[in-house]
Amino acid sequence: RIIISHVKGVDTFMDYEKDFDKSNINKVDPKAAKKTVFATGIGNAMEWFDFGLYSYLAVILGQNFFSSVENDQLKTIFTFATFAIAFLLRPVGGIIFGIIGDKYGRKVVLTTTIIMMAFSTLIIGLLPTYDQIGVWAPILLLLGRVLQGFSTGGEYAGAMVYVAESSPDRKRNTLGCGLEIGTLSGYIAASVLSGLLFFFLSDDQMATWGWRIPFILGLFLGIFGFYLRRKLEESPVYENELASKPKRDNIGFLTIVRYYYKDIIVCFVAVAFFNCTNYMLTSYMPSYLQEIVKLDSTTVSVLITVVMAVMIPLALMFGRVADRIGEKKVFLIGLIGTAVLSIGAFALIQTTTIIFVIVGIFVLGFFLSTYEATMPGSLPTMFYTHIRYRTLAVTFNVSVSLFGGTTPLIASSLVAKTGDPLSPAYYLTAVSIVGIIVISLLHVSTSGKSLKGSYPNVESDEEYEYYANNPDKAMWWAKDKRV
Predict the structure, then answer these.
(1) pTM score, two decimals?
(2) Residues with Cβ < 8 Å from 196, sequence gap 6 or more?
(3) Looking at CB atoms within 10 Å, which of 153, 224, 296, 403 has the fewest?
């Protein structure tokens, strides 16, 4: 008999022979799981389609919304500052949507956030410029970004939770990386569309009306995603939790922090190094290549698009590897590689020789793909079912706000202040070293295991019988006295 302490301080008891119910083992249809990944991945594509557009069009947005600023580099800094400030609303969205997701279900949040994201993207495409309405233009741009930040606060965490709870345990990373494939696909779509517009339209046409087209088209991607998500069923893990413990959603955040602070620290740091690398490559690199390396916008679009396309099979490969050897080892592959090679990658980019520029960007993309492959499938496993959505949403979004959304601003400011084009690489190296220390000391791999607080998700009769006959393996987490 194992004593399990409830997070509110009430001792409960689990006797495997008495309390274990093998009928609660979740049989998951792999085909249905793949459809789930596609429907949720559309939201990621929507989010990063918007982020990609903002990055590729940052120079033009600066000219349109900060035209009163004479220095071109300052215009870009102000544009990225608007990008970063909007991230302050992500934790607020994470809190609100996280509570809703734990109390009323994952599906209701996912169908709401995707419409909000699509609407905020449309707003940016329809905004008047500074020359038309003066200071109200950047204010309205900020409000559009704030709405985007608020909605994405519940979007990505909800997508990760939903896919993790709907996937077979042994394929959680393989299927979870599909969310990041949606991310890459959205960014590639933004890159291709921006590149085509830069190619077919003149600079004047792009500056006056061409930049609006992709933001307006984003509405249709959001509508398509909403249609797919309306057809989703609630995750089986959440339904089992709701049926067995319907009142456990009243646990406060302070209680959660008190009992799960180590898991929160690991999650916070993992999200930090993931998003610093992610936003450095996807959000800051286009402007860096144009303003510092002096490449033309079409070349930049092609380079980033090619690297993003190559990252898709890499993410799939590392997702399968993580399911076999554990996500912790894959984390460390990415962290050590980024810490050791970031400075060299930026040095190659500085040569302005196209082949070296491609190699430098690819090095960053290669190690980023290790995070793309493992984060969606591993972050939800750090928390128990009854607190999973809200804890992940808040932790994820606070970390993204501090280290992800600010990365383009910090990187551009470092270059402007120090005059050293390698300074973004120093920042990336420092963050990676912190990640190596925390992951090495605190993280325990959960690949192939059931989610904390849940019965296993299986896809075969053999797996079902194995766990039915081995309750201690099915509920490995029960020895944790914080349940």
Answers:
(1) 0.85
(2) none
(3) 296
